[in-house]
Protein backbone atom coordinates (compact mmCIF):
# COMPACT_ATOMS: atom_id res chain seq x y z
CA UNK A 1 0.00 0.00 0.00
CA UNK A 2 2.87 2.38 0.74
CA UNK A 3 4.19 1.72 -2.78
CA UNK A 4 0.86 2.14 -4.56
CA UNK A 5 -0.58 4.99 -2.45
CA UNK A 6 2.25 7.37 -1.59
CA UNK A 7 1.04 10.03 0.80
CA UNK A 8 -1.70 7.82 2.25
CA UNK A 9 -0.93 6.56 5.78
CA UNK A 10 -0.22 2.84 5.60
CA UNK A 11 -1.90 0.66 8.25
CA UNK A 12 0.29 -0.02 11.25
CA UNK A 13 0.68 -3.52 12.78
CA UNK A 14 -2.03 -2.84 15.36
CA UNK A 15 -4.57 -1.98 12.68
CA UNK A 16 -3.64 -5.03 10.62
CA UNK A 17 -3.91 -7.26 13.69
CA UNK A 18 -7.36 -5.86 14.46
CA UNK A 19 -8.50 -6.46 10.89
CA UNK A 20 -7.36 -10.07 11.04
CA UNK A 21 -8.77 -10.87 14.48
CA UNK A 22 -11.92 -8.75 14.85
CA UNK A 23 -14.98 -9.72 12.78
CA UNK A 24 -16.54 -7.05 10.59
CA UNK A 25 -20.22 -6.26 11.02
CA UNK A 26 -22.60 -8.49 9.08
CA UNK A 27 -19.91 -10.59 7.42
CA UNK A 28 -17.12 -13.09 7.83
CA UNK A 29 -13.65 -13.01 6.32
CA UNK A 30 -11.45 -15.49 4.46
CA UNK A 31 -7.70 -14.93 4.01
CA UNK A 32 -5.10 -16.40 1.65
CA UNK A 33 -1.34 -15.93 1.87
CA UNK A 34 1.00 -16.55 -1.05
CA UNK A 35 4.62 -17.34 -0.17
CA UNK A 36 7.77 -17.46 -2.23
CA UNK A 37 10.33 -20.24 -2.56
CA UNK A 38 11.99 -19.09 0.66
CA UNK A 39 8.69 -19.14 2.55
CA UNK A 40 8.45 -15.36 2.75
CA UNK A 41 5.10 -13.65 2.05
CA UNK A 42 4.70 -12.25 -1.47
CA UNK A 43 0.95 -11.68 -1.70
CA UNK A 44 -2.28 -11.73 0.25
CA UNK A 45 -5.97 -11.85 -0.58
CA UNK A 46 -8.86 -11.20 1.75
CA UNK A 47 -12.50 -11.91 1.00
CA UNK A 48 -15.28 -10.30 3.01
CA UNK A 49 -18.45 -12.38 2.67
CA UNK A 50 -21.52 -10.31 3.55
CA UNK A 51 -24.20 -12.06 5.58
CA UNK A 52 -26.78 -9.36 6.40
CA UNK A 53 -30.24 -9.72 4.83
CA UNK A 54 -30.21 -7.79 1.57
CA UNK A 55 -26.51 -8.46 0.94
CA UNK A 56 -26.25 -12.26 0.96
CA UNK A 57 -25.22 -12.13 -2.71
CA UNK A 58 -22.21 -9.88 -2.13
CA UNK A 59 -18.50 -10.37 -1.45
CA UNK A 60 -15.59 -7.93 -1.38
CA UNK A 61 -11.99 -8.52 -2.40
CA UNK A 62 -8.78 -7.01 -1.07
CA UNK A 63 -5.67 -8.20 -2.90
CA UNK A 64 -2.05 -7.10 -2.54
CA UNK A 65 1.11 -8.41 -4.21
CA UNK A 66 4.53 -7.22 -3.15
CA UNK A 67 5.86 -4.88 -5.87
CA UNK A 68 9.04 -6.95 -6.25
CA UNK A 69 6.98 -10.05 -7.09
CA UNK A 70 4.41 -8.68 -9.51
CA UNK A 71 3.68 -9.96 -13.03
CA UNK A 72 4.60 -13.50 -11.98
CA UNK A 73 1.05 -14.83 -11.76
CA UNK A 74 0.70 -14.46 -7.99
CA UNK A 75 -2.29 -12.12 -8.20
CA UNK A 76 -4.02 -14.41 -10.69
CA UNK A 77 -3.39 -17.43 -8.43
CA UNK A 78 -4.91 -15.63 -5.44
CA UNK A 79 -7.87 -14.38 -7.47
CA UNK A 80 -8.64 -17.90 -8.70
CA UNK A 81 -8.84 -19.09 -5.08
CA UNK A 82 -11.10 -16.17 -4.19
CA UNK A 83 -13.48 -16.81 -7.09
CA UNK A 84 -13.72 -20.48 -6.14
CA UNK A 85 -14.60 -19.44 -2.59
CA UNK A 86 -17.25 -17.06 -3.93
CA UNK A 87 -18.89 -19.95 -5.78
CA UNK A 88 -18.74 -22.07 -2.63
CA UNK A 89 -20.37 -19.22 -0.69
CA UNK A 90 -23.06 -18.82 -3.40
CA UNK A 91 -22.05 -15.24 -4.24
CA UNK A 92 -23.09 -13.55 -7.47
CA UNK A 93 -21.09 -10.30 -7.12
CA UNK A 94 -17.46 -9.65 -6.19
CA UNK A 95 -16.47 -6.03 -5.67
CA UNK A 96 -12.97 -4.60 -5.32
CA UNK A 97 -11.35 -1.17 -5.10
CA UNK A 98 -8.19 0.07 -6.81
CA UNK A 99 -6.49 3.44 -6.91
CA UNK A 100 -6.98 5.19 -10.24
CA UNK A 101 -4.08 4.72 -12.67
CA UNK A 102 -2.57 2.04 -10.42
CA UNK A 103 -1.44 -1.54 -11.16
CA UNK A 104 -4.63 -2.66 -9.40
CA UNK A 105 -6.77 -0.87 -11.98
CA UNK A 106 -4.99 -2.58 -14.87
CA UNK A 107 -5.12 -5.97 -13.12
CA UNK A 108 -8.88 -5.67 -12.50
CA UNK A 109 -9.63 -4.76 -16.10
CA UNK A 110 -7.53 -7.64 -17.43
CA UNK A 111 -9.34 -10.11 -15.17
CA UNK A 112 -12.84 -9.21 -16.39
CA UNK A 113 -13.96 -6.79 -13.69
CA UNK A 114 -16.14 -3.92 -14.87
CA UNK A 115 -15.80 -0.39 -13.56
CA UNK A 116 -18.86 0.34 -11.41
CA UNK A 117 -18.13 3.53 -9.48
CA UNK A 118 -15.54 6.29 -9.15
CA UNK A 119 -14.82 7.78 -5.73
CA UNK A 120 -13.26 11.19 -5.22
CA UNK A 121 -11.09 11.32 -2.07
CA UNK A 122 -10.90 14.68 -0.35
CA UNK A 123 -8.88 16.14 2.52
CA UNK A 124 -9.82 18.91 4.92
CA UNK A 125 -6.82 20.53 6.60
CA UNK A 126 -7.99 21.84 9.96
CA UNK A 127 -5.01 24.19 10.26
CA UNK A 128 -6.14 25.96 7.08
CA UNK A 129 -9.55 26.84 8.50
CA UNK A 130 -10.31 30.03 10.45
CA UNK A 131 -9.01 30.17 14.01
CA UNK A 132 -11.00 28.26 16.60
CA UNK A 133 -12.66 31.46 17.85
CA UNK A 134 -13.74 32.49 14.35
CA UNK A 135 -17.07 31.43 12.77
CA UNK A 136 -16.97 28.57 10.30
CA UNK A 137 -19.24 27.92 7.31
CA UNK A 138 -22.38 27.14 9.28
CA UNK A 139 -22.27 27.45 13.05
CA UNK A 140 -25.93 28.40 13.45
CA UNK A 141 -28.53 25.70 14.10
CA UNK A 142 -31.32 25.63 11.51
CA UNK A 143 -34.66 26.55 13.12
CA UNK A 144 -36.36 23.57 14.76
CA UNK A 145 -33.21 21.47 15.24
CA UNK A 146 -30.75 20.82 18.04
CA UNK A 147 -27.43 19.02 18.19
CA UNK A 148 -26.77 15.73 20.02
CA UNK A 149 -23.46 13.93 20.22
CA UNK A 150 -21.75 10.87 21.66
CA UNK A 151 -18.61 8.76 21.53
CA UNK A 152 -18.83 5.06 20.71
CA UNK A 153 -22.21 3.41 21.28
CA UNK A 154 -25.34 5.46 20.71
CA UNK A 155 -27.20 6.35 23.94
CA UNK A 156 -30.36 4.30 24.48
CA UNK A 157 -32.55 7.39 24.13
CA UNK A 158 -31.37 7.86 20.53
CA UNK A 159 -30.87 4.24 19.44
CA UNK A 160 -34.11 3.72 17.50
CA UNK A 161 -34.04 7.19 15.94
CA UNK A 162 -30.39 6.73 14.93
CA UNK A 163 -31.19 3.38 13.31
CA UNK A 164 -33.95 5.03 11.28
CA UNK A 165 -31.58 7.77 10.17
CA UNK A 166 -28.95 5.17 9.22
CA UNK A 167 -31.41 3.66 6.77
CA UNK A 168 -31.25 6.94 4.83
CA UNK A 169 -27.80 5.83 3.62
CA UNK A 170 -29.47 3.23 1.41
CA UNK A 171 -30.14 5.90 -1.22
CA UNK A 172 -26.50 6.98 -1.54
CA UNK A 173 -25.10 6.73 -5.07
CA UNK A 174 -23.41 3.39 -5.72
CA UNK A 175 -23.04 3.59 -9.49
CA UNK A 176 -23.46 0.21 -11.17
CA UNK A 177 -22.50 -1.83 -8.09
CA UNK A 178 -24.84 -4.63 -7.06
CA UNK A 179 -24.50 -3.47 -3.46
CA UNK A 180 -27.91 -4.35 -2.08
CA UNK A 181 -29.36 -2.60 0.96
CA UNK A 182 -29.17 -2.94 4.73
CA UNK A 183 -31.98 -2.57 7.26
CA UNK A 184 -30.78 -0.86 10.43
CA UNK A 185 -32.23 -1.32 13.91
CA UNK A 186 -31.02 -0.45 17.40
CA UNK A 187 -29.22 -3.77 17.83
CA UNK A 188 -27.30 -3.32 14.60
CA UNK A 189 -26.09 0.21 15.43
CA UNK A 190 -24.92 -1.03 18.82
CA UNK A 191 -23.14 -3.97 17.19
CA UNK A 192 -21.44 -1.62 14.72
CA UNK A 193 -20.07 0.51 17.58
CA UNK A 194 -18.80 -2.59 19.38
CA UNK A 195 -16.93 -3.82 16.31
CA UNK A 196 -15.20 -0.44 16.00
CA UNK A 197 -14.32 -0.29 19.70
CA UNK A 198 -13.04 -3.88 19.74
CA UNK A 199 -10.48 -3.09 17.04
CA UNK A 200 -9.22 -0.08 19.02
CA UNK A 201 -10.79 2.73 17.00
CA UNK A 202 -12.88 5.61 18.34
CA UNK A 203 -16.14 6.67 16.68
CA UNK A 204 -17.48 10.19 17.17
CA UNK A 205 -21.07 11.00 16.17
CA UNK A 206 -23.03 14.25 15.98
CA UNK A 207 -26.71 14.25 15.07
CA UNK A 208 -29.36 16.80 14.17
CA UNK A 209 -32.47 16.13 16.24
CA UNK A 210 -35.78 17.72 15.24
CA UNK A 211 -38.09 19.32 17.78
CA UNK A 212 -40.48 16.38 17.34
CA UNK A 213 -37.75 13.98 18.54
CA UNK A 214 -36.88 12.43 15.18
CA UNK A 215 -33.26 12.26 14.09
CA UNK A 216 -32.96 14.28 10.91
CA UNK A 217 -29.33 13.62 10.06
CA UNK A 218 -25.92 12.76 11.44
CA UNK A 219 -22.22 12.63 10.74
CA UNK A 220 -19.59 10.16 11.99
CA UNK A 221 -15.81 10.50 12.20
CA UNK A 222 -13.44 7.64 13.00
CA UNK A 223 -10.17 8.07 14.88
CA UNK A 224 -8.01 5.06 13.94
CA UNK A 225 -6.48 3.39 17.02
CA UNK A 226 -7.97 6.09 19.21
CA UNK A 227 -6.36 9.19 17.73
CA UNK A 228 -3.73 10.46 15.30
CA UNK A 229 -3.13 13.17 12.71
CA UNK A 230 -5.70 11.96 10.16
CA UNK A 231 -9.32 11.21 11.00
CA UNK A 232 -11.61 9.28 8.64
CA UNK A 233 -15.04 10.57 7.76
CA UNK A 234 -17.58 7.78 8.05
CA UNK A 235 -21.26 8.25 7.19
CA UNK A 236 -22.95 11.59 6.75
CA UNK A 237 -26.65 11.37 5.96
CA UNK A 238 -29.75 13.53 6.06
CA UNK A 239 -33.16 11.86 6.18
CA UNK A 240 -35.10 12.69 2.96
CA UNK A 241 -37.92 14.50 4.79
CA UNK A 242 -35.38 16.90 6.35
CA UNK A 243 -33.24 17.74 3.32
CA UNK A 244 -32.89 21.28 2.07
CA UNK A 245 -32.25 22.89 5.48
CA UNK A 246 -28.46 22.84 5.46
CA UNK A 247 -28.24 20.07 8.04
CA UNK A 248 -25.33 18.30 6.36
CA UNK A 249 -23.13 21.40 6.44
CA UNK A 250 -24.24 22.19 9.99
CA UNK A 251 -23.41 18.83 11.56
CA UNK A 252 -20.10 18.53 9.69
CA UNK A 253 -19.13 22.04 10.82
CA UNK A 254 -19.99 21.09 14.40
CA UNK A 255 -17.78 18.01 14.05
CA UNK A 256 -14.83 20.18 13.06
CA UNK A 257 -15.43 22.24 16.21
CA UNK A 258 -15.58 19.06 18.29
CA UNK A 259 -12.36 17.66 16.87
CA UNK A 260 -10.53 20.91 17.55
CA UNK A 261 -11.77 20.99 21.12
CA UNK A 262 -11.43 17.32 22.08
CA UNK A 263 -8.72 15.97 19.73
CA UNK A 264 -6.22 18.73 18.92
CA UNK A 265 -3.77 16.16 17.53
CA UNK A 266 -6.09 15.64 14.53
CA UNK A 267 -4.89 17.91 11.73
CA UNK A 268 -6.89 16.60 8.77
CA UNK A 269 -10.02 14.64 7.85
CA UNK A 270 -10.24 12.35 4.84
CA UNK A 271 -13.54 11.58 3.15
CA UNK A 272 -14.67 10.09 -0.14
CA UNK A 273 -17.71 10.65 -2.30
CA UNK A 274 -19.03 9.07 -5.46
CA UNK A 275 -18.29 11.42 -8.35
CA UNK A 276 -22.02 11.59 -9.13
CA UNK A 277 -22.92 12.48 -5.52
CA UNK A 278 -23.08 16.13 -6.54
CA UNK A 279 -24.83 17.34 -3.39
CA UNK A 280 -22.36 15.90 -0.86
CA UNK A 281 -19.39 16.95 -2.97
CA UNK A 282 -20.77 20.50 -2.94
CA UNK A 283 -21.16 20.33 0.84
CA UNK A 284 -17.58 19.15 1.31
CA UNK A 285 -16.09 21.71 -1.06
CA UNK A 286 -18.04 24.43 0.77
CA UNK A 287 -16.45 23.27 4.02
CA UNK A 288 -12.97 23.48 2.51
CA UNK A 289 -12.26 19.89 1.45
CA UNK A 290 -9.96 19.52 -1.57
CA UNK A 291 -9.70 16.52 -3.91
CA UNK A 292 -6.39 14.67 -3.81
CA UNK A 293 -6.87 11.20 -5.34
CA UNK A 294 -9.45 8.87 -6.89
CA UNK A 295 -10.44 5.26 -6.28
CA UNK A 296 -12.21 3.01 -8.77
CA UNK A 297 -14.72 0.43 -7.57
CA UNK A 298 -14.86 -2.67 -9.76
CA UNK A 299 -17.34 -5.53 -9.90
CA UNK A 300 -17.02 -9.07 -11.19
CA UNK A 301 -20.30 -10.78 -11.97
CA UNK A 302 -20.06 -14.45 -11.04
CA UNK A 303 -22.14 -16.93 -13.03
CA UNK A 304 -24.04 -19.55 -11.10
CA UNK A 305 -22.10 -22.75 -10.61
UniProtKB/TrEMBL annotation:
Which parts pass through the membrane? none
User: Is the keyword Transferase assigned to this protein?
Assistant: yes
**ATP-binding as UniProt keyword:** no
Q: Where is the N-acetyltransferase domain?
A: 1-133
> What are the alphabetically sorted keywords of the record?
Acyltransferase, Transferase
A molecular function GO annotation: acyltransferase activity, transferring groups other than amino-acyl groups
Under which name does UniProt file this protein? GNAT family N-acetyltransferase
Which organism encodes this protein?
Streptomyces agglomeratus
Amino acid sequence: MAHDLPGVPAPDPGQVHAQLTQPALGSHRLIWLATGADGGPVGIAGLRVFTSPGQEHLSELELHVDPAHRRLGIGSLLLAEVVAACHAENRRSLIAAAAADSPGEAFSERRGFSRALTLDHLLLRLDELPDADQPLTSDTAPPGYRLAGWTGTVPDEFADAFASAKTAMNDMPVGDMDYGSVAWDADRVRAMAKVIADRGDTLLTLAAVHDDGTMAGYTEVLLPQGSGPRAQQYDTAVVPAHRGHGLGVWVKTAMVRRLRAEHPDVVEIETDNAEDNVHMLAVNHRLGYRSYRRTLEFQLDLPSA
